[in-house]
Amino acid sequence: MMGSLRTIALAILAISAFTFIALFGRLPAFRKTPIALLHRAVWIYFPNGVAYLDSRLLGGRLVRTWNRSGSYILHENHPLVLIFFVGLLAIGEWVFLPVAWPRMSSVHHPWVPPVVIIPYILLYKCVMTNSHVTPENHNEEMKRYPFDQVLFHPGYRCSTCNLIKPARSKHCKFCRTCVSRQDHHCVWLMNCVGANNYMYFMSLLLSLSVLLAYGTCLGYSLLRQSLQEMIPAHLQAAMESWIMYFNIWAIVIQSDPRIGTITLLMLMTAPLAMAFLAYHTYLIWAGMTTNESSKWSDWKEDVEDGYVFKAHRKDIPDAHPFTDFNEHPWPVTSDQLLVTDDEPPLEGYILVPGTNRIDYRSDEDAPIDSRWVPVHSMKDIDNIYDLGFWNNLRDSAGLSVRRMGRK
Ligand SMILES: [Zn+2]
Ligand SMILES: [Zn+2]
């Protein structure tokens, strides 16, 4: 009896941990941590290991079969994860609510329906709202953000869509189109999270966190009632010891299995939803998308290696201008120019247009160009897309932002 419960709990915990690592392990915050290593193990080392064994033992037959079915799973926009996600939600509610409803105090009755229904509405909005860049809206999308010439440079054409890429957009190979203010492609939603559905996505994370936290508390209070009724007082007093504590809860969950299992499931998945919500709140605070956060951490590594140099735009007359600042007023401007190289720019360098690289016409040793200074900290680099938390929040919701002056 104890054993099977422990197995279920461990299985749920293992699935939650695996999901967390598989989904979030790539995030820059986990670089150089065991989580990133485990993420690589899941996505790179394990598949490579299987492919190696397969080529040695089976002549590559397994990989060919996998590619026929597996490439569908990994590279196509398919609904399996969405179905799993909705299924888990619906089955959990179907198991929990009919037994919990009559037992819960009536003060909860008005709250439960909205808490249950709102995530479905937001999920629908997330899935159905796209942020595709199309020939029809391209002009407008180009005006949405200026090019910062750090992460985004003007003049790059998407070879698939045959459109100039707007600043902060990214081509999504799953959606097969460029996506405006692309945050990430979400397999749970079968859609990119971008300019038009980011607020639905944040609201979905919030509503799921509320659902799971509220459900856990409700489930706990019902199980607590069962415990009071079932367990004699002298045994309840013995719950001071950890072993008795877990044993008694195991008995309660076994005797109340519908509420017990779903409460356990909610308890273990609530941190996932909240971690995701917290991470996106951090991104809004920092003024970046998930896509940009990995670009910024590349910059951070270059800064740490001493490869980034900065100059004032007014001192470099031949620098390509921020074309869009004239066309499209943005609340902040910046006069920074950044280049990356393994040594300071020497006099006579050429700025390679549309990049942060420099080049030289000749190999001659020239003196260091004193207009460029090394960047020692990310604090010395302007992120023109960061307008402060509230304006970032308004901007990510597609609302207008106040004029702010110089960054
Ligand atoms: Zn594209
Ligand atoms: Zn996508």
UniProtKB/TrEMBL annotation:
Residues 157-296 form the Palmitoyltransferase DHHC domain. Keywords: Acyltransferase, Lipoprotein, Membrane, Palmitate, Transferase, Transmembrane, Transmembrane helix. The keyword Acyltransferase applies. It comes from the Eukaryota. It is found in: Membrane. It catalyses: L-cysteinyl-[protein] + hexadecanoyl-CoA = S-hexadecanoyl-L-cysteinyl-[protein] + CoA. Its main location: membrane. InterPro entries: Palmitoyltrfase_DHHC, PFA4/ZDH16/20/ERF2-like. It is a multi-pass membrane protein. Its EC number is 2.3.1.225. One of its GO terms (molecular function) is protein-cysteine S-palmitoyltransferase activity. The keyword Thylakoid does not apply. GO terms for cellular component: endoplasmic reticulum; Golgi apparatus; membrane. The chain crosses the membrane at residues 41-59, 80-101, 198-223, 259-285. One of its GO terms (biological process) is protein targeting to membrane. PANTHER family: PALMITOYLTRANSFERASE SWF1 (PTHR22883:SF480), ZINC FINGER DHHC DOMAIN CONTAINING PROTEIN (PTHR22883). The DHHC domain is required for palmitoyltransferase activity. Belongs to the DHHC palmitoyltransferase family. This is Palmitoyltransferase. It comes from Penicillium argentinense. The lineage of its organism: Eukaryota, Fungi, Dikarya, Ascomycota, Pezizomycotina.
